[in-house]
Write a structure and sequence with these properties.
Length: 251
Amino acid sequence: MKKTKKLYLIAMLAALIMVFHTSCGTGYNYSSASVLTYHLILDEPYTEYHYLFVKPADFEAQLKYISESGAETVFASELTSGKFSRSSVKPVCITFDDGYEDNYTNAFPLLKKYNIKATIFVVPKTIGTERHLTDAQLYEMSSSGLVSIQSHGLTHSSLVGLSREKLEYELSESKELIESITCMPVTALCYPYGAYDDSVKAAAARYYTAAFTTEPPSDESGYKLDVFAFPRSYVVRDMDIDDFKRILGNK
C-alpha cells in the first residue's frame, strides 16, 4: 500500500513539473516569442511585390543581430511545446512563406553560418516548379536540424469558403505530402493569404497544433494569444536595423 501511494505521489509530482514546464517552462511561454515573416531573400525582385524581396546582406545583418543579442531561435512547431531554454532575451521564430528556391540558395547558407533556426511553410503543389524548392532541397534542409518544413496548404488556395471535403483535403494532404518528403512531423500550418475563420481554425486543429496568420501582434493590454491564429511581424525589403530591433521588441 505504501509503495503504491509513493508511486502515485511521484507520478503526480512529475505531472505538475510537466505542466509548469509547458506553461512557464523556460522563463517564457509562446505568447512572448517574436514571430517574423519572410518570403524571399534576393537582391533583384522579379515580381511587382518588391517589399517581399529582402536583400541577402540585410538578412545577414538581421541574423547577426539575433545571434549577438543572445536570443534563442525556435521552430514554429515548437512554440506551443515550452521547449525554450531560460534566457533574458525572448525567443525569435523566423518563418518563410511559400517555399521559394532562394530560401535554399541564399537563406540556408546564412542560417548555417549563424546557427539559427527557421521554419519554411511550403505549398506541396508548387514543389519542384520554377523558382520553388525541390524535394531534395527540402530534405537536405530538414535533415540539417536548422530548418523545419511545415504546411502552407496543398495548393495555396484560400481555405475560407471551401466545402468541408475540400478543406479537409487541403489540410490533410499537404501534411502527408510534406512528411513523406522530409520524414519529419508536420504540426504547424500557415493560412494561405492569412485567411481564416472559425470553421477553418476548427479544421486546422484536427491536424495541427498551431496555425499562423499574416496579422501583426497586438499591443492591447489583456490580449490573449490564440494558438490557431498566431500573429507575425513582416520583415520587408530595405527595413533598417533599428526598425528590425523594434519589431523584436528590443528598442
